[in-house]
Design a protein that fits this description.
The chain is mainly β. The longest helix is centred in the first third of the chain and has 16 residues, at 14-29. The protein contains three helices and 18 strands. Strand 4 (92-95) and strand 5 form a beta hairpin. It is globular and about 60 Å long. The strands form three sheets. Strands 1, 4, 5, 7, 12, 13, 14 and 18 form an eight-stranded antiparallel sheet that branches. An eight-stranded antiparallel sheet has the order 2-3-6-15-8-9-10-11, with no helix packed on it. Strands 16-17 form a two-stranded antiparallel sheet. The protein has two domains: 4-49, no CATH class; 58-306, Jelly Rolls (Sandwich).
């Protein structure tokens, strides 16, 4: 004990005093010894493994689509609301960031649609996140990752997307319908953007990342909103934030992943969901690449520091 040295007085032999002091110092320092190297390595490996796990459903999860299905077009939701998605015929399952993922192509029938459910309306305490591996940036304004935003003005709620090349004829066969032209503004090709339609009357608000989303590489992306600030996250790090007071408008729009399509052109004719009620089959906004682990939450998450790049 540290209070014992007062027992050693000037009358004690010097050698005895020094021996007692050395013994006490050794006892005091015993607990500060470094752990064995093997234990340190094991603890680090365990921590890295925990930080490199796919997102899990928790109390704040509205929907979670792991994209691990190997056959068929049904895309199960592992969240509490069981918001089943249906994939278009021009998507397929392949190896993903965790387990399997859904591969999207430049086709009008490349999409996942989750029908409207009141649980999808999250006006201000909000997170949308996913792992993405794009092959290319879109020819037109953008390529949505996830959105509740169709061509109908009444179905404008929010959209998370990657800015495209905004090409025009004759470089591309036809002109864009311009559905997202007001959202991308002068933002750089390849940047991430999040936009929403305010609940109050007004124009849509769009916010952009400072970094490009890399091609042919997995990247974790997220957008959060708390009614006051929009934040964009890339690979677990805060990339940009913007003051934005208000609420996201509630609509009857479905959740669409990998595309934005007017639900009115979709049909189950022949047994599968496809875009069959339209004469224009140009895939203006089709995502080209892999999407995995889409999670929608009713809180503005901040724990993206747990994301670890492969």
């Amino acid at each position: 004990m540290r209070s014992r040295p007062h027992l050693v007085t000037s009358r004690a032999p010097l050698g005895l005093a020094l021996a007692i002091m050395a013994l006490l110092a050794g006892c005091a320092g015993h607990g500060a010894q470094a752990p064995p190297a093997g234990a340190t390595h094991a603890a680090t490996a365990a921590k890295d493994a925990a930080l490199n796990m796919p997102p899990a459903a928790d109390a704040a999860t509205v929907g979670l689509w792991h994209m691990d299905e190997t056959l068929g077009t049904q895309v199960p939701d592992f969240g509490p609301n069981e918001l089943l998605g249906v994939a278009g015929l021009e998507t397929r399952s392949d190896f993903g960031r965790f387990g399997r993922a859904r591969v999207f192509t430049r086709s009008l029938d490349s999409f996942i649609e989750v029908p409207f459910n009141p649980a999808l309306d999250i006006p201000s305490s909000f997170t949308i996140e996913a792992w993405v591996r794009p092959n290319s940036y879109g020819d037109y304004e953008d390529t949505p990752i996830a959105a509740r935003w169709t061509a109908q003005n009444a179905d404008h709620s929010w959209i998370l997307s990657i800015v495209g090349n905004a090409l025009r004829p004759p470089v591309v066969p036809v002109s864009s319908p311009g559905d997202h032209a007001a959202l991308i503004g002068a933002s750089a090709v390849g940047t991430l953007y999040f936009a929403f339609q305010p609940a109050d009357a007004g124009l849509p608000r769009a916010y952009y990342s400072t970094r490009q989303i890399e091609l042919s590489r997995w990247t974790h992306i997220a957008a959060t909103f708390d009614g006051h600030v929009v934040k964009l996250w890339i690979d677990g790090r805060l990339d940009a934030q913007y003051a934005s007071l208000g609420r996201i408008r509630s609509t009857q729009a479905p959740l669409e992943i990998g595309n934005t399509i007017d639900p009115h052109v979709l049909s189950t004719f022949g047994g599968d969901l496809r875009a069959s009620n339209t004469s224009d089959t140009t895939p203006y906004y089709a995502f080209d690449g892999w999407i995995d682990e889409v999670r929608l939450s009713n809180v503005p998450r901040t724990a993206f520091e747990s994301v670890k790049r492969p």
